[in-house]
Amino acid sequence: MTQFNKLTLASTDALPNVIVSELSHWGLMTATGEQRLSYLQGQLTCDLVGLEDQQTTWGGHCDPKGKLWSTFQVAKKGNSFYFIMRKDALAITLPELKKYAVFSKVELTDASAFCNLYGIAGAQAEQWLNKTFAITLGEEAVTHLPNGFVMRLIGDTPRFLILLQKSDASLQQISQHLAEAATDDGSFWDALDILAAAPIVGTAMSSVQIPQAFNLQAYDGISFTKGCYTGQETVARAKYRGTNKRAMAILTGATATEVNSGDNIELQLGENWRSTGKVNLSYRYSDGVQLISSVMPNNLETDSVFKITDNESNLAFMPLPYSLVEAD
Fold first, then answer.
1. Domains, the chain, ranges and CATH?
2. What mean pLDDT, rounded, does the chain reach?
3. 226-235 as b/e: b if 16+ CB within 10 A
4. 66 exposed, middle or buried (CB, 10 Å; 0-12, 13-18, 19+)?
5. Which of 323, 297, 300 shows the shortest CA–CA distance to 218?
6. Within the chain, what is the greatest distance between any pair of CA atoms?
7. Nearest to 164 by CA among 5, 59, 26, 264
8. What are 89-133's pLDDT values in tens digits?
9. Would 188 disulfide with which of 7, 125, 180, 224, CB 3.0-4.6 Å?
10. If we measure between CA atoms, which residue out of 250, 252, 244 comes closest to residue 217?
11. What is the mean pLDDT of residues 222-238?
Protein backbone atom coordinates (compact mmCIF):
# COMPACT_ATOMS: atom_id res chain seq x y z
CA MET A 1 0.00 0.00 0.00
CA THR A 2 1.28 3.47 -0.89
CA GLN A 3 2.28 5.64 2.06
CA PHE A 4 1.17 9.26 1.74
CA ASN A 5 3.57 11.41 3.77
CA LYS A 6 3.69 15.15 4.32
CA LEU A 7 4.95 16.91 1.20
CA THR A 8 8.00 18.98 2.17
CA LEU A 9 8.13 22.27 0.26
CA ALA A 10 9.65 25.66 1.02
CA SER A 11 7.61 28.76 0.26
CA THR A 12 9.95 29.57 -2.66
CA ASP A 13 9.77 26.11 -4.25
CA ALA A 14 7.96 25.59 -7.53
CA LEU A 15 4.84 23.46 -7.38
CA PRO A 16 5.41 19.88 -8.61
CA ASN A 17 3.75 19.13 -11.94
CA VAL A 18 1.44 16.59 -10.26
CA ILE A 19 0.56 16.29 -6.58
CA VAL A 20 -1.66 13.46 -5.34
CA SER A 21 -3.06 14.18 -1.88
CA GLU A 22 -4.77 11.57 0.27
CA LEU A 23 -7.71 13.44 1.82
CA SER A 24 -8.28 11.30 4.88
CA HIS A 25 -9.54 14.38 6.77
CA TRP A 26 -12.36 14.82 4.24
CA GLY A 27 -15.59 12.83 4.18
CA LEU A 28 -18.79 12.14 2.29
CA MET A 29 -22.44 12.63 3.19
CA THR A 30 -25.08 11.16 0.89
CA ALA A 31 -28.74 12.15 0.59
CA THR A 32 -31.34 9.81 -0.90
CA GLY A 33 -35.12 9.41 -0.74
CA GLU A 34 -38.01 10.84 -2.72
CA GLN A 35 -38.14 14.10 -0.71
CA ARG A 36 -34.37 14.68 -0.63
CA LEU A 37 -34.54 17.76 -2.87
CA SER A 38 -37.37 19.57 -1.12
CA TYR A 39 -35.89 18.86 2.30
CA LEU A 40 -32.38 20.04 1.42
CA GLN A 41 -33.73 23.15 -0.32
CA GLY A 42 -35.13 24.24 3.04
CA GLN A 43 -31.87 23.61 4.89
CA LEU A 44 -28.96 24.74 2.70
CA THR A 45 -27.76 28.03 1.20
CA CYS A 46 -27.33 26.68 -2.34
CA ASP A 47 -29.97 25.96 -4.98
CA LEU A 48 -30.04 22.26 -5.88
CA VAL A 49 -32.97 22.52 -8.30
CA GLY A 50 -31.70 21.89 -11.81
CA LEU A 51 -28.31 20.57 -10.70
CA GLU A 52 -27.23 18.14 -13.41
CA ASP A 53 -25.05 15.05 -13.05
CA GLN A 54 -22.14 16.88 -14.72
CA GLN A 55 -22.37 19.91 -12.42
CA THR A 56 -21.34 20.81 -8.89
CA THR A 57 -22.00 23.70 -6.55
CA TRP A 58 -20.65 25.01 -3.30
CA GLY A 59 -23.08 25.43 -0.45
CA GLY A 60 -23.41 25.95 3.26
CA HIS A 61 -25.48 24.80 6.22
CA CYS A 62 -26.43 27.48 8.75
CA ASP A 63 -27.83 27.49 12.25
CA PRO A 64 -31.11 29.39 12.82
CA LYS A 65 -29.13 32.60 13.44
CA GLY A 66 -27.47 32.35 10.04
CA LYS A 67 -24.05 31.27 11.33
CA LEU A 68 -22.29 28.62 9.24
CA TRP A 69 -22.01 25.13 10.64
CA SER A 70 -20.28 23.85 7.53
CA THR A 71 -19.58 24.30 3.84
CA PHE A 72 -19.33 21.64 1.15
CA GLN A 73 -19.27 20.85 -2.53
CA VAL A 74 -22.15 18.77 -3.80
CA ALA A 75 -22.47 16.54 -6.85
CA LYS A 76 -25.42 14.52 -8.08
CA LYS A 77 -25.81 11.15 -9.73
CA GLY A 78 -29.24 9.81 -10.50
CA ASN A 79 -31.33 9.93 -7.34
CA SER A 80 -28.50 10.70 -4.92
CA PHE A 81 -26.67 13.82 -3.77
CA TYR A 82 -23.03 13.56 -2.70
CA PHE A 83 -21.73 16.17 -0.27
CA ILE A 84 -17.94 16.38 0.10
CA MET A 85 -16.73 18.22 3.19
CA ARG A 86 -14.15 18.04 5.94
CA LYS A 87 -14.86 15.32 8.49
CA ASP A 88 -14.92 17.77 11.40
CA ALA A 89 -17.65 19.71 9.58
CA LEU A 90 -19.52 16.51 8.73
CA ALA A 91 -19.58 15.50 12.39
CA ILE A 92 -21.36 18.77 13.21
CA THR A 93 -23.69 19.20 10.25
CA LEU A 94 -25.05 15.65 9.86
CA PRO A 95 -26.72 15.43 13.31
CA GLU A 96 -28.23 18.90 12.80
CA LEU A 97 -29.65 17.97 9.40
CA LYS A 98 -31.02 14.72 10.79
CA LYS A 99 -33.01 16.50 13.51
CA TYR A 100 -35.71 17.52 11.06
CA ALA A 101 -35.17 14.84 8.41
CA VAL A 102 -37.43 12.48 10.38
CA PHE A 103 -40.41 14.46 9.06
CA SER A 104 -39.43 13.93 5.41
CA LYS A 105 -38.74 10.97 3.15
CA VAL A 106 -35.00 11.53 3.05
CA GLU A 107 -32.05 9.48 4.26
CA LEU A 108 -28.83 11.25 5.21
CA THR A 109 -25.76 9.04 5.66
CA ASP A 110 -22.13 9.46 6.59
CA ALA A 111 -20.63 7.37 3.79
CA SER A 112 -17.00 8.27 4.50
CA ALA A 113 -16.11 4.70 5.45
CA PHE A 114 -17.14 3.44 2.02
CA CYS A 115 -15.00 5.72 -0.14
CA ASN A 116 -11.54 7.18 -0.59
CA LEU A 117 -11.02 10.84 -1.43
CA TYR A 118 -7.99 12.26 -3.22
CA GLY A 119 -6.94 15.69 -4.40
CA ILE A 120 -4.93 16.06 -7.62
CA ALA A 121 -3.15 19.35 -8.33
CA GLY A 122 -0.53 20.81 -10.64
CA ALA A 123 0.09 21.81 -14.23
CA GLN A 124 -0.02 18.17 -15.42
CA ALA A 125 -2.86 17.06 -13.12
CA GLU A 126 -5.41 16.65 -15.90
CA GLN A 127 -3.04 14.61 -18.06
CA TRP A 128 -2.22 12.37 -15.08
CA LEU A 129 -5.93 11.77 -14.46
CA ASN A 130 -6.59 10.97 -18.11
CA LYS A 131 -3.78 8.42 -18.06
CA THR A 132 -4.66 6.89 -14.69
CA PHE A 133 -8.37 6.43 -15.38
CA ALA A 134 -8.21 5.98 -19.17
CA ILE A 135 -10.56 8.90 -19.71
CA THR A 136 -10.55 12.26 -21.47
CA LEU A 137 -11.73 14.98 -19.13
CA GLY A 138 -13.89 17.59 -20.81
CA GLU A 139 -15.04 20.99 -19.58
CA GLU A 140 -17.70 19.46 -17.34
CA ALA A 141 -17.31 20.13 -13.61
CA VAL A 142 -18.04 16.47 -12.78
CA THR A 143 -16.95 13.40 -14.75
CA HIS A 144 -18.46 10.15 -13.53
CA LEU A 145 -16.43 6.94 -13.33
CA PRO A 146 -17.71 3.38 -12.90
CA ASN A 147 -16.51 3.50 -9.28
CA GLY A 148 -16.82 7.20 -8.42
CA PHE A 149 -16.30 10.61 -9.99
CA VAL A 150 -13.76 13.36 -10.71
CA MET A 151 -14.65 16.94 -9.76
CA ARG A 152 -12.91 19.89 -11.42
CA LEU A 153 -12.25 22.70 -8.92
CA ILE A 154 -12.22 26.46 -9.45
CA GLY A 155 -8.91 28.33 -9.15
CA ASP A 156 -5.66 29.40 -10.78
CA THR A 157 -3.90 26.13 -9.93
CA PRO A 158 -5.44 23.14 -11.78
CA ARG A 159 -7.09 21.02 -9.08
CA PHE A 160 -9.41 18.02 -9.01
CA LEU A 161 -11.20 16.04 -6.32
CA ILE A 162 -11.56 12.29 -6.84
CA LEU A 163 -14.07 10.12 -5.01
CA LEU A 164 -13.63 6.35 -5.38
CA GLN A 165 -15.53 3.48 -3.84
CA LYS A 166 -13.31 1.83 -1.26
CA SER A 167 -11.92 -1.38 -2.75
CA ASP A 168 -8.64 -3.08 -3.60
CA ALA A 169 -9.29 -2.36 -7.27
CA SER A 170 -9.70 1.37 -6.59
CA LEU A 171 -6.48 1.48 -4.57
CA GLN A 172 -4.65 -0.31 -7.35
CA GLN A 173 -6.09 2.13 -9.87
CA ILE A 174 -4.99 5.27 -8.02
CA SER A 175 -1.56 3.73 -7.28
CA GLN A 176 -0.55 2.65 -10.77
CA HIS A 177 1.00 5.99 -11.80
CA LEU A 178 1.89 7.47 -8.41
CA ALA A 179 5.59 7.21 -9.26
CA GLU A 180 4.98 10.04 -11.72
CA ALA A 181 3.60 12.34 -9.02
CA ALA A 182 4.54 13.92 -5.70
CA THR A 183 2.42 12.45 -2.92
CA ASP A 184 0.97 14.27 0.07
CA ASP A 185 -0.85 13.28 3.26
CA GLY A 186 -3.45 16.02 2.71
CA SER A 187 -1.74 18.82 4.59
CA PHE A 188 -0.56 20.55 1.41
CA TRP A 189 -4.11 20.35 0.06
CA ASP A 190 -4.98 22.70 2.93
CA ALA A 191 -2.33 25.10 1.61
CA LEU A 192 -3.95 25.03 -1.83
CA ASP A 193 -7.38 25.65 -0.28
CA ILE A 194 -5.96 28.66 1.57
CA LEU A 195 -4.34 30.06 -1.58
CA ALA A 196 -7.67 29.64 -3.40
CA ALA A 197 -9.43 31.36 -0.47
CA ALA A 198 -11.91 28.49 -0.62
CA PRO A 199 -14.92 29.05 1.68
CA ILE A 200 -14.08 26.24 4.09
CA VAL A 201 -15.09 26.41 7.75
CA GLY A 202 -12.16 25.43 9.96
CA THR A 203 -12.41 23.28 13.07
CA ALA A 204 -12.73 26.17 15.51
CA MET A 205 -14.93 28.40 13.33
CA SER A 206 -18.17 26.42 13.16
CA SER A 207 -21.29 28.44 14.03
CA VAL A 208 -19.26 31.65 14.44
CA GLN A 209 -19.77 33.69 11.25
CA ILE A 210 -22.34 34.07 8.46
CA PRO A 211 -21.70 32.64 4.95
CA GLN A 212 -20.59 35.96 3.44
CA ALA A 213 -17.82 36.22 6.05
CA PHE A 214 -16.31 33.08 4.48
CA ASN A 215 -16.76 34.52 0.94
CA LEU A 216 -19.21 31.75 0.06
CA GLN A 217 -20.99 34.12 -2.35
CA ALA A 218 -17.74 34.43 -4.37
CA TYR A 219 -18.04 30.69 -5.12
CA ASP A 220 -21.76 31.01 -6.00
CA GLY A 221 -22.62 29.02 -2.88
CA ILE A 222 -25.54 31.25 -1.80
CA SER A 223 -28.83 31.54 -3.66
CA PHE A 224 -30.77 34.75 -3.02
CA THR A 225 -33.71 33.69 -5.19
CA LYS A 226 -34.63 30.14 -4.17
CA GLY A 227 -36.72 31.00 -1.10
CA CYS A 228 -36.48 30.21 2.58
CA TYR A 229 -33.91 28.01 4.30
CA THR A 230 -32.54 27.84 7.82
CA GLY A 231 -30.73 31.11 8.57
CA GLN A 232 -31.88 32.73 5.31
CA GLU A 233 -33.19 35.94 6.91
CA THR A 234 -29.78 36.81 8.36
CA VAL A 235 -27.97 35.94 5.12
CA ALA A 236 -30.36 38.06 3.02
CA ARG A 237 -30.11 41.00 5.43
CA ALA A 238 -26.33 40.94 5.14
CA LYS A 239 -26.61 41.28 1.36
CA TYR A 240 -29.42 43.79 0.98
CA ARG A 241 -28.75 45.96 4.04
CA GLY A 242 -24.98 45.72 4.00
CA THR A 243 -24.76 44.40 7.56
CA ASN A 244 -21.82 42.07 6.92
CA LYS A 245 -18.54 43.68 7.97
CA ARG A 246 -16.23 40.68 7.60
CA ALA A 247 -14.59 38.65 4.84
CA MET A 248 -12.21 35.74 4.42
CA ALA A 249 -8.61 36.90 4.04
CA ILE A 250 -5.26 35.21 3.36
CA LEU A 251 -2.30 36.01 5.59
CA THR A 252 1.30 34.95 5.16
CA GLY A 253 4.57 35.44 6.98
CA ALA A 254 7.04 33.83 9.33
CA THR A 255 5.95 32.22 12.60
CA ALA A 256 8.04 30.65 15.35
CA THR A 257 5.86 27.55 15.68
CA GLU A 258 2.92 25.80 14.04
CA VAL A 259 -0.38 27.68 13.96
CA ASN A 260 -3.70 25.98 14.68
CA SER A 261 -7.34 26.67 13.88
CA GLY A 262 -8.74 28.96 16.56
CA ASP A 263 -5.44 30.68 17.41
CA ASN A 264 -5.87 34.40 18.06
CA ILE A 265 -4.69 36.97 15.49
CA GLU A 266 -3.74 40.52 16.54
CA LEU A 267 -3.57 43.68 14.41
CA GLN A 268 -0.80 46.23 14.96
CA LEU A 269 -2.06 49.73 15.83
CA GLY A 270 0.96 51.94 16.33
CA GLU A 271 2.83 50.48 19.30
CA ASN A 272 -0.19 48.45 20.41
CA TRP A 273 -1.94 45.29 19.25
CA ARG A 274 -5.65 44.53 19.04
CA SER A 275 -7.35 41.16 18.65
CA THR A 276 -8.92 41.09 15.20
CA GLY A 277 -9.68 37.48 14.21
CA LYS A 278 -9.05 33.77 14.56
CA VAL A 279 -7.08 31.33 12.46
CA ASN A 280 -9.42 29.35 10.20
CA LEU A 281 -7.07 27.09 8.18
CA SER A 282 -3.28 27.05 8.32
CA TYR A 283 -0.26 25.50 6.62
CA ARG A 284 3.43 25.92 7.44
CA TYR A 285 6.13 25.56 4.77
CA SER A 286 9.43 23.89 5.62
CA ASP A 287 11.17 27.31 5.79
CA GLY A 288 8.82 28.55 8.53
CA VAL A 289 6.57 30.65 6.30
CA GLN A 290 2.93 30.26 7.30
CA LEU A 291 -0.23 30.42 5.20
CA ILE A 292 -3.42 31.31 7.07
CA SER A 293 -7.04 31.88 6.14
CA SER A 294 -9.00 34.00 8.57
CA VAL A 295 -12.27 35.89 8.77
CA MET A 296 -11.28 39.54 9.24
CA PRO A 297 -12.96 42.97 9.29
CA ASN A 298 -13.38 43.87 5.62
CA ASN A 299 -12.21 47.48 6.01
CA LEU A 300 -8.59 46.89 7.05
CA GLU A 301 -5.74 48.54 5.14
CA THR A 302 -3.93 46.29 2.69
CA ASP A 303 -0.58 47.02 4.39
CA SER A 304 -1.81 45.99 7.86
CA VAL A 305 0.59 44.01 10.05
CA PHE A 306 -0.54 41.04 12.16
CA LYS A 307 0.83 38.52 14.62
CA ILE A 308 -0.34 35.33 16.31
CA THR A 309 -0.84 35.73 20.05
CA ASP A 310 1.98 34.04 22.02
CA ASN A 311 3.74 33.00 18.82
CA GLU A 312 6.57 35.21 17.55
CA SER A 313 5.34 36.12 14.09
CA ASN A 314 5.00 38.78 11.43
CA LEU A 315 2.09 38.42 9.03
CA ALA A 316 0.65 40.42 6.14
CA PHE A 317 -2.23 40.16 3.69
CA MET A 318 -1.96 38.23 0.43
CA PRO A 319 -4.29 39.32 -2.40
CA LEU A 320 -7.44 37.26 -2.84
CA PRO A 321 -7.61 35.31 -6.13
CA TYR A 322 -11.09 36.74 -6.83
CA SER A 323 -13.11 39.92 -6.38
CA LEU A 324 -15.63 40.40 -3.57
CA VAL A 325 -17.42 43.17 -5.46
CA GLU A 326 -20.91 41.83 -6.19
CA ALA A 327 -22.87 42.66 -9.31
CA ASP A 328 -26.04 44.67 -8.80
1. 19-195 (3.30.1360.120), 245-318 (2.40.30.160)
2. 96
3. beebbbbebb
4. buried
5. 323
6. 61
7. 26
8. 999 999 999 999 999 999 999 999 999 999 999 999 999 999 999
9. 7
10. 244
11. 96
